[in-house]
Amino acid sequence: MNLLVFLMMAMGAVGAFSEVHAQLPSHGPPGEEARWRPTVVLTERGAFVSDGAGTYAAGCEAHAPGEATGSSTVSSSVPSSVSSSVLSTVPNVAGALDASGLRLCASRLAAAHPHAERVTLTADPAVPLADLVAAMDALRGTTTRPLFPEIQLAAGVR
Questions:
Q1: For residue 25, is it within any domain?
Q2: Residue among 89, 82, 94, 101 at smallest CA distance from 38
């Protein structure tokens, strides 16, 4: 009897911890929010901000010259292997992420796409955790002026 009670309690404890809440992406008809999916990739040289049309130039007001348009995947809109000839959207300052520059970029993009709430954030393995957290804070905005409150973390692209 004691063994049965012990097993029931052990299974109940395991069952309480086995529940995982996940939000799957919707696959409904494409709308403005579904078509525009910004991605921020952190590298050792800075942050690359891109969407389905390509990588943004410095200042986030337009796409970089020579960018291919029409790509909707993260890996094709991010510079492959981040070649040295490609300038980052928000270059690092003194070896660290320019969080204020990334916040300015995010505010411009949020103003251009007011219904967008989600951004995908990924980082190379060499990027310090402090830069990743600073990027999350910059992209999220403030409580009085939220920019992208939903941040999806993705595996680094190399």
A1: no
A2: 89
